[in-house]
Each structure stands twice: as structure tokens, then as C-alpha cells.
């Protein structure tokens, strides 16, 4: 079920109506049923898989809480994490492994073609697997007591606003909101509606209007190098509008139900360097990788070489998390290299590539943002490519003089307009809290919501696409 669908609005309206007339414990039951319907609407048979993973983690967490021996706790943790990773690997990476083996076997003189298993990938399995794993690890570390009620735990891992594309919620943040009664006040309603309207605007107006341009250029080899560059910029806007739009909708819907989700984006294209970018983009994933992979690998506590190793492994696995393709691995490696080079420069203190401070002039800061945005877009070119051969073709077209200025498939005015709109929305996101602190009449907010809603209806493309991160 898609956020941009009639079925979802019917489900959401029913949920809001039932929540308004029921108490806390019954509310959790309603939310759990709605979450199962939301997920099962896509392919109901995989509900058993999701519940099975939840049962494994629920039982392992209870066993961890009863053990005093560190060795026993470690064994239970390994069993739980191995089960999660085995299920994730089976569904998401088995065909990728077979394809890699088929490509590598001829190198060793073996000419065989192993058949692909062609397993249907459970939607967003990476998101709820990582969420479950963080719960297990936190219980193991003593940061969290396990949940006794299985239904409450199941709601934590299957809460429908975040189920298929995050944010990847931490148990210590979301579980207390599930276990305690929730109140929805005027501020929650205002903030929730604002987020939902803004999210739909980003998705429908920005992302879905740019998608045809991006798809056309990257699929048509006759498009010139300039078209590829412009389409890469368009994809940077598309994926940001699509993913941050989903996050805004998820956070807004949750806020209207009394939940406050983690912020997943903080104006990522305002970043001045790689570290700054990952503090702003897909924050729930980057902090997950930091806390559960980078720091356990040594972080920055054991010298530069160990730090560079930890950065490289973390970003490689972060890239692979996005999908079973070598282009995702390459994208992760690319960002790992950026982080390592940035750390090397910082350590040598030759170039002050730091976060902006009051001493930075506005021109210097804008220059840093503009330069790093180009590096970010190089990464998006890798990310968008449908395989290694497609990536080689895109790069070749950029450096090929023939037909370089052929941009017949590109609406430059639309890209520029939506780029300015995206910039304006990010600036407004920064300024809005300050405006709200001074007080804003409800009629002003209502007028704004209405105008944006009209824009969505009038300017929406004929085809509304699914969210990009649903595939991960």
C-alpha cells in the first residue's frame, strides 16, 4: 500500500476515527492491526515472515535479560543477529551472490551458469531488520529492558508510518511512546498537518515531476553528455523530494496520532563536507551505522589507520544495505573515500574543511556548499545507474564530444524551477521554528495548507510513482 493511494487514505481515516474513541491499550491493538493490513496489502504471505523475525528477536531479548553470564549473553546475541542477517541475505542478496559467482567462475576455468532463485523481495526488509537488530543490541548492552508484551513489541517493529521506508526508529525512542498513553494537542495537530502537506508537495510536485526527465535521459543513449549532467542534478532533487517527502508524511501522520518520530533530514544539500552531509542525510541510517558498526569496529579510538578502515567498511556495507548491486557498493565506497580524504585533510590541518562557524563569511560558506554539492551529485550518478555497464555508458556520454549538447529530452526550466523551490523549502524549514515561536495565527497556517494542497492537485503529474526507498 502506497501513501499516495485511495486505499491508504481509507485506512488512515479509519484509524484516526477509531483512535479518537478508544483508550490506550485498544489504540495499540488498532495500530497493530492497521500496520499488518498496510504491509499485507502488498503481499499478505510475507506477514508470516515479518512476524517470525519479530518473534525471534522478542524471545532472544527476553533470554538476554535473564542471563548473567556474559558468554551466554554473547551467544544469544549472535544467534539473534545471525538469524536476522541470514533472512535478510537470503531474500535480498542470494541472487546477487549467484550472479557474482557466475561472473567469477570463468576466471578459475570453470564454465558454469548457476540458476538464479528469483525470490520475491519482501518490501523494505532492510528497514525493519535494522530496527529489530538495534533493539537486540541495546538490550544486550543494558541500555534497554526487553518488552514483555509481544503485541507492543510487534507494533514497534511494524508501526505502519515507518514500516517500509523509515526512519529507522530506536527502541529507546519509540517504545516508551507505545507503552505510555498519548495525548494529541493543538501543537501536534498543526505540526502534523504541516508535515503531511509539505511531504506530499515534495513527493508529488518535486519528485514525480522530475522522474520522467531522469528516466528518459538515463534510458536513452542518444542523449548527450550535458543531458546526463542535468539529469543527475534532477535526480538529486528527485530522490531528496521523494525520500524526505516520505519522511515528512510519516512524521506528520505519527504526530497526529501522538507519536514523535526521529528527524531523518536536515537540509542535506547545505552540507559543506562529507561528514556534514551524513549528519543531514538519512540520519536514522547514518547514526545506526555509526553506533552499531563504525564504533564497534574501533571508530576513531585506535589511530588513523583503524579509523580509515572503520569508515571504509561502514560505508561499503551502508552502500550494500541499499540494494544487491555493485553500483550500490561502489556508491558506498565513493562516500567512504570522501570521508577518508576529508579526515586526512583535517588531520593535516592544511585546509579548514570544518563545519560553518560564525567566523566564516557567507561567500566562503556558499562556496563550500556549492562545491560539495557537485561531489554529492557524482555519488547520485553512481547510485542511479542500473548496473555497471549503464554507469560506464553514462560516464562515457559525459566525456564524449559528439552530441554533447543534445538536451532535447530535458526540461531545463522545470529542473531550475524545482531546484529553487527545493532551496526555498529548506530555507523555510530552518526559519519556520523561529516564526512559530513568535506565534502564528491559525488562519495563516490554514491558508498556507490550502494553497499548497491546491498546488498539489493542479500541478500533480498524471502518473504518481511509488517511493524510491520502498525497494530497500
Protein described:
The protein is mainly α. The chain has 2 domains: 6-104 and 119-182, no CATH class; 187-272 and 356-471, no CATH class. Helix content is 69%, strand content 0%. The chain has helices at 6-20, 24-40, 47-66, 70-104, 125-140, 150-158, 171-179, 186-219, 225-256, 274-278, 283-294, 304-322, 326-348, 362-384, 388-398, 412-437, 442-459. Helix 3 packs antiparallel against helix 4 and helix 9 runs parallel beside helix 16. The longest helix is centred in the N-terminal third of the chain and has 35 residues, at 70-104. The two termini are 15 Å apart. Mean pLDDT is 89; it is low at 351-355.
Number of structural units classed as domains: 2
| Overall 3D shape | globular
Query: What letter string, H or E per element, gives the SSE order?
Result: HHHHHHHHHHHHHHHHH
Strand content: under 5%
Oligomer: single chain
Q: Describe the main β-sheet briefly.
A: none
Radius of gyration using CA atoms only: 23 Å
Please tally the β strands and state the result: 0
Helix content: 55-70%
The parts where pLDDT drops under 50 for at least 5 residues are 351-355
| SSE-based structural type | mainly alpha
The count of helical stretches stands at 17
What is the average per-residue confidence, as pLDDT, rounded to a whole number? 89
Distance between the termini: 15 Å
